[in-house]
Amino acid sequence: MKPFAARIPSSAARRRARRTLCQLALAGAALAACGSVAASEAWPDRPVRLIAPFSPGAATDQVTRVLAQQLSDQLDTSFVVENRTGAAGRIAADAVVKAAADGYTALFGEPGGLVVAPAVYTATTTFDTERDLIPVAQVVSMPMVVVAHPSLGVSNLAELKAAATRGHLNYGTNGTGSVQHLTMETLADQLEVPLTHIPYRGGANAITDLVAGQIQLSLLTIPTVEAYIKSGQVVPLAVLDAERSPVLPHTATAREQGLEGLDVPIWCGFFLPAGTPPAIVERFSAELGKALQDPQIQDRLAKAGNTVTYRNHDAFQRWVADDVARWRAIVQNTGVQLD
């Protein structure tokens, strides 16, 4: 038997083979692009679930429901809000991370559950926000305000510092390791006064004890505490935002009162699971932008104390990445680590 000799293709044959492979690759890419566009044009053709990590009736839940109704009207498809509370928002985020990446399960998220909690619960957080979720669009920001019980007799941060040097003060937040907790620790550090943290299961419980005089201070979003301020049950000391709130025009910002680095409004926006077709992400982002242009939607959100803040997919993705880095540094500076 003659030994087998491999036949070496000619250079012309090799060129033809390379051309064929390139053509097949281009055809595959074109088909994938067409599929993505087709998916975007068809989306949504069935109900979309909006997973919210807040209790029904909470300020953030109300924003979710206002936009869910508007999207339902715009796209003639139901957008259904589903509340998944617990673990500082991580339960809701984990549910969306594990959902099919088809555009039919979205998260209404904020920094507490997506940025801060993963930084302080490093051992028990099961997802990576930047790796596992796609920021679709920011829709609102909620300025926070430092508030005090009237019996404390203070109306600004200078008076708070003086009161804290005279006696022991405590403050309540919606939980250990929350945005509010870490921000109040930063505030106490800048004022150079000791403040004792009292964690609660949610901001509503903290408000109840603040109004009753069981705690002296709290840090809450303006939509959450606005009614108590207007009724005189609590006193606003400082807005933690770059500018004064139209809802509280007579309350100075922390920056106006000499403190830097405390502009920390709570941003809120929508996220989809990693792997969702880009065309669906862009379509969802554009529809949210359209919803926020409606004067009635703007009015409803603003009257509830929200600042309408639209950032599209690209801008919101950069914002979230910057916020992740920022809060990691704050967590390191405060030394808070919970597992």
Return residue spans where pLDDT drops below 50 for at least 5 consecutive residues. Answer: 1-6, 29-35
> Structural class given helices, strands, pairing?
alpha/beta
Q: CATH topology of the largest domain, which one?
A: D-Maltodextrin-Binding Protein, domain 2
Widest beta sheet: strand line-up? 2-1-3-10-4-11
Annotation field: number of helices: 12
Taking the alpha carbons of the first and last residues, their distance comes to 72 Å
- Share of helix among residues? 40-55%
What brief labels describe this structure?
disordered N terminus; six-stranded mixed beta sheet; alpha/beta; 339 residues; 11 strands; D-Maltodextrin-Binding Protein, domain 2; 12 helices
Brief rundown of the structure:
The protein contains twelve helices and eleven strands. The protein has 339 residues and is an alpha/beta fold.
Describe the structure in your own words:
The structure is a single chain. The chain has a six-stranded mixed beta sheet, with helices on both faces. Helix 2 packs across helix 10 (278-292). It has twelve helices and eleven strands. The chain is an alpha/beta fold. The chain has two domains: 46-141 and 265-334, Bordetella uptake gene, domain 1 (D-Maltodextrin-Binding Protein, domain 2, 3-Layer(aba) Sandwich), CATH 3.40.190; 144-240, D-Maltodextrin-Binding Protein, domain 2, CATH 3.40.190. Helices cover 47% and strands 18% of the residues. The protein has helices at residues 11-42, 59-75, 90-97, 111-120, 129-132, 157-166, 179-191, 203-211, 222-230, 278-292, 295-303, 313-334; strands spanning 48-52, 79-83, 105-109, 133-142, 144-148, 170-173, 196-199, 217-221, 235-240, 266-273, 307-311.
